[in-house]
């Protein structure tokens, strides 16, 4: 057994006891990983494994006795790729990303959760690991367990395609809240002023309804909306590709904390409750997972 702590995550296979936990919950935010292990009803903190580089990792147990790892990926695919590589090395074979995201569809409201069945992976780190065409698909059995758990807990859920991108601002077409107001055309489309819209024959009534003097059309978000993408986040696509390449089971559930059909802001008042719902669903999925589907042949 390799007893040396791994360089970034700061713990070793030996720190996990005789058998590594069956599941890891992996959060971008170290505070969420800590809350899962320290403050979630029914979860008992067994051991702080490491808080190296803010990549907080905790061993915890559930009421039925199952042990879980609550770990931190950091933000974005490069950090996630390091953590997942080292988690695999210490014996982790099932990872549920428990994250936050922005909705790009009208029917996906803030406060709900999105369970990813596949990702549009626009992530540079993933290209170091597999060809760009390589599928970014969630494990179907863990995904169904997440859906069943959300139904049982009566959490407002959606299942669908997630866009995983490398930047929160430019890549998710944010301009008002970003210092960079000039998106590249393939991301931002074009801005039409009221004057141009009038010349194009848009009625005065419609122009009056506009909140701003210009609208942006043909941007990446509009394109993804038409492709039935539900949400934006920044790690899932690479995680799912790594699962395919390394051979482990991965799935993703994200709390919706921004409504990108209406604006760019994070809905801070409901963020914590939405995250708690995503955590509860993930833990219930772990508890109720049919042991048959834990076999390596289902990864
Ligand atoms: O809340 P987490 O899990 O960090 O996930 C989302 O939040 C961060 C951006 O605010 C990115 O990491 C994105 O994927
Ligand atoms: O809009 C959002 C919210 C959370 N995380 C993202 O990546 N985007």
From TrEMBL:
Q: Which GO terms describe its biological process?
A: nucleoside catabolic process
List residues of the Nucleoside phosphorylase domain: 23-284
Q: Does the keyword NAD apply?
A: no
Q: Gene3D superfamilies, from UniProt?
A: Nucleoside phosphorylase domain (3.40.50.1580)
Question: Which reaction is this enzyme known to catalyze?
Answer: uridine + phosphate = alpha-D-ribose 1-phosphate + uracil
Listed EC numbers: 2.4.2.3
Query: What are the alphabetically sorted keywords of the record?
Result: Glycosyltransferase, Transferase
Q: Which domain of life is it from?
A: Bacteria
Which is one Gene Ontology cellular component term of this protein?
Answer: cytosol
Q: Name one Pfam family in it.
A: PNP_UDP_1
Q: What is this protein identified as? A: Uridine phosphorylase
Species of origin: Desulforhabdus amnigena
């Amino acid at each position: 057994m390799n007893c040396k702590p791994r360089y970034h995550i700061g713990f070793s296979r030996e720190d996990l006891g005789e058998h590594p936990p069956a599941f890891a919950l992996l959060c971008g935010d170290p505070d969420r990983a800590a809350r899962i292990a320290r403050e979630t009803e029914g979860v008992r903190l067994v051991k702080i494994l490491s808080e190296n580089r803010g990549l907080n990792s905790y061993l915890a147990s559930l009421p039925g006795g199952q042990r879980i790892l609550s770990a931190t990926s950091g933000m974005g695919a490069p950090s996630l790729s390091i953590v997942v590589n080292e988690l695999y090395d210490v014996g982790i074979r099932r990872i549920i990303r428990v994250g936050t995201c922005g909705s790009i569809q009208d029917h996906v409201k803030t406060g709900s959760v999105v369970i990813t069945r596949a990702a549009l992976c626009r992530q540079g780190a993933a290209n170091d690991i597999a060809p760009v065409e390589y599928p970014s698909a969630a494990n179907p059995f863990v995904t169904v367990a997440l859906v069943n758990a959300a139904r049982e807990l009566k959490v407002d859920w959606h299942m669908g395609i997630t866009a995983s991108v490398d930047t929160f601002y430019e890549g998710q077409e944010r301009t008002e809240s970003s210092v960079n107001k000039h998106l590249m055309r393939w991301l931002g489309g074009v801005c039409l002023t009221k004057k141009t819209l009038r010349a194009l024959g848009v009625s005065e009534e419609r122009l009056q309804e506009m909140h701003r003097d210009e609208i942006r059309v043909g941007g990446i978000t509009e394109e993804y909306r038409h492709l039935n993408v539900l949400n934006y986040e920044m790690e899932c696509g690479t995680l799912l590709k790594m699962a395919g390449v390394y051979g482990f089971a991965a799935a993703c559930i994200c709390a919706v904390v921004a409504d990108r059909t209406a604006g760019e802001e994070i809905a801070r008042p409901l963020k914590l409750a939405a995250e708690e719902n995503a955590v509860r669903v993930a833990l219930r999925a772990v508890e109720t997972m049919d042991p048959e589907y834990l076999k390596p042949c289902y990864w």
